[in-house]
Amino acid sequence: MFAPFLLAQQNAINGFILDETNNPLEFASVTLLKTKDSIAEAFSFTNEKGAFTIADIQSDHYILQVYLTGFLPFYQNIEYKNQSIDLKNISLKTAVNKLNEVTITAVIPVQIKKDTISYNASSFKIHHDDNIEDLLKKLPGIELDNQGNIVSQGNEVTKIYVDGKEFFSGDPAIVLKNLSADMINKVEVIDKKSDEAELTGIRDEQKNYVINLTLKKNKKNNGFGKFSAGIGLKDKYFSNINYNKFSSKSQISVIGKINNINISGSNIQDFLSASGGLTDEEGDDTTIEQKINSLSGNLTTGVGGFNIGHELKKKETLNADYFYNFLENDGTSQRKQISFSRLRNYYSESENSTSNNSKNHNVNFNYENKSNKNSRLFLKGYINSEINTNNLDKTVSYFDDLNELKTENDINYYSKKNKDKGNVQLNYYKKINNTKRNFSTGFSIYSDKLTNFNDQISVSTNKTNNYSYKNAIIKNELFKNNNLNLNFTYTEPLGKNHYLKARTVFTLKNALEETEQNKKKNDIDQPSISYILKSKEESYQSTFIYTYSSEKFNLNINSELQQLYRDFGLEDENNYKIKKSYFNPSATFNYKPKKGENYVLKYRKYVKSPSNYKSSPVVNDLNPYYIRKGNPLLNSEKYDDITLNANLHNFQSGVTFFSKLGYQKVTNAIVPNLTITDNYIQTRSFVNEGNRDQYYSEFNLNKRLKSLDLRYNIKAKSLHNSENSIIDSELNRVISNEYLVGLSLENNNKNSIDIKLGADYSINNTAFSVIKNLNRNYSKQHYFTKIDYDISKRLNINSQFDYYLYSDSDFNSQQKIPFLNASIAYLVSQKNNAILKLLFIDILDKNVEIVRKSNINYFEETTNQTLGRYFILSFSLRLNNQNNNKTTTI
Fold first, then answer.
1. Cα distance between residue 476 and residue 481, in whole Å
2. Are the beta carbons of 40 and 106 closer than 8 angstroms?
């Protein structure tokens, strides 16, 4: 349905590329170079018939260059007068053991080969001190969110490799923030087959999208790295160092970083989650912009680690790494919240001051043996140890619907968490003979231990009668989890691309919770609480899978029978025992009609057991104003998921389009059951009630306007979510609709100046069935422009302006927040390996971030105080710098 739009062309240069025996050559690059300066003006690729088309170009004199690996380059002078030119057949001669003479070779920014999208890093403007994260943000079709999650063509990227080998266990966050962009030759986004499919050649439904970073030739077999340091006003500082030595068989890397300017060296969401303090609710929100814990105030962070990889023999590798991370965060925030119950509405304001600290040690290893053509062995694991401390001072004021202050709560909270965890996973794949008969087996063992010390003092004051009462709670908690997974799969070929698989999976989960709590009310001892809660879950899954696998089609139909057994309860009391059987069908259909087009339709049915948090029979009143208790009688939720993905790239026009449509239905949904007292004390439990429905869509279109030398990107997202909750014994249906549209423009020729501007607009509508007049609408507008200009070969200036506009129907606020950042950089060394940079951050000193949320019976707006204005003078030095060969880019 998209082909007419993508392939529509007007006046163009057309032709066919053939080999010496007149066979068509696919994926030959065809480039137009301006005759006067050899600057690449436009490019295209040949299709499966060897045909190419270059359109949307200006009248001029050009050199046509045709290039394909294994053949000699072809050149032809062309005068284009805005009229179609048919070059008919062009024959390439085979390159036979010849070294090509020095030729004009254009660098093609984006190439697509089979299941790989390859970006040439030199086609995108990067700076001396840019890291991989900065580079990826400039690549069309790739998006990064605030957490460092990577999405390419609508698909989440799960790992990053360097020259095909794991680097710090492939953890994207570490690679993004600690490797330099200028060491990279190409960024390859790979639609990676499963390990089993790579061995057997039978495509299955298991896909992973990974990024492989290929190094520049002058970085291989040489030690290289970078050192940077800076100091500024308000005692701000940073220092980074990395050193790497890669060869064909070995990888050695060392990284280090310390700063107090809110730049982390890893993903800090685990830290923010662990140090969130006294939470008011479990984060079940689902929105387009994934809900995250926000960082406020000042963050000081330090990281250090090393990675060692070695090829023991051909196709047998061992990788290991160690990574240390510490974070210190101090900040303040203000929160406004409108809540409702069946009988009343109320408004609250809170002032929060936090101080969080974390120390984290990580050890990872990965062994792969692909040396035998008939078998593969994978062994990997990790050990993690983490200590988190959190201090929170919080004041909450509650107002009734007449805006009269009714209650004020003052909370002082301290916690210390020690968590150790580890995992070992082994998988073995074996081809029995050349008929593609095969089997696989494996296991996974996971264990963790968490100790948690909580010390809280709270004072609640009734402003109507000025009566106050004080609660003091000390709570010690111990949590242990031990999980075991065993699996076995056998595949029998049925002939003519048809296969039948039999799979069995056994999962065992054991959990232990020990709690001791001492409580005082108005300095009078209350009965202490001490209990041990144990749970055990066993799952047996037996599956038959029919597979049809060919070059263009792949079909998988799964029929799974799952037996689920749960046994949990308090020690020395009667346990709750649940035994259920479920039928879980699923199917995947993958269609690739030609290169550059891919369609995937998936359906999956599965069940989720209630978490220990939701099914615990114990009341948790650590926060006396937000009491939580589980429901041991909960049943498992049943999920039905269906998704449709379409990815299209037209090699002739350079248009890239991808879309994603999805629907999820949850039956027997577990929903919150909330009661609220006159003193605004909330008690939250859970029940199974009705269905939860979610629809979502995503579209992205990227195209180059050659006549204007611009590239544009259009994106659109939508999300509909509908679910129940129980508020003071009354059923409440919460329906939210969220929409986002965005447009960005950037110049294509970035040799001296790089300009990007655009806008995003998002809107959220949330409706509650229990109370009509509290329906909420809020929007966010974001306008941005980025300018990067090389004044000379040594002097560069860079600026970025962001303008945010927030509006809200319920808080009656329209907030306008501009942010302006700038930098000036000067290359001070004749060897082009040292640079001075002056950075100006948050020049307008706005110092705020706004986060919004709508939930089961409330909506809120949080204002976080951020770092604020600061200036830094920095110095960066390449270690063992090698000059790069100059190339012509499009």
1. 17
2. yes
The rounded distance, in Å, linking the Cα atoms of 851 and 866 is 12
Pairing of strands 207-215, 155-162: parallel
Element (H, E) at 154: none
What pLDDT, in 10s, does the model give residues 684-743? 999 999 999 999 999 999 887 766 778 889 999 999 999 999 988 889 899 999 999 999
Largest CA distance in the chain: 98
Confidence of residue 890 (pLDDT cuts 50, 70, 90): very low
User: Looking at the DSSP assignment, which residues form a beta bridge with residue 20?
Assistant: none
Q: Is the pTM of this model over 0.70?
A: yes
Q: Which residues pair with 758 in a beta bridge?
A: 744, 784
DSSP secondary structure code for residue 63 in this structure: E
Number of helices and strands in the chain (H, E): 6, 50
**All residues at 6 or more sequence positions from 348 whose CB lies less than 8 Å from its CB, including other chains:** 335, 336, 337, 339, 396, 397, 398, 399, 680
Question: 197 and 835 in contact (C-beta within 8 Å)?
Answer: no
Cα-trace Rg, the chain = 30
State how far Cα 189 lies from the chain centre: 14
DSSP one-letter string for 155-178: EEEEEEEETTEESGGG-HHHHHHH
What is the separation of C-alpha 809 from the centre of its chain, rounded to a whole number of angstroms? 31
Q: 208 with 229: CB under 8 angstroms?
A: no
CA–chain centroid gap for 764, Å, is 22
| pLDDT single digits (tens) 483-522 | 999 999 999 999 888 999 999 999 999 999 999 999 999 9
**Three-class DSSP category at 54:** strand
Instruction: Tell me the β-bridge partners of 111.
Output: 118
818 burial via Cβ count (<10 Å: 0-12, 13-18, 19+): middle
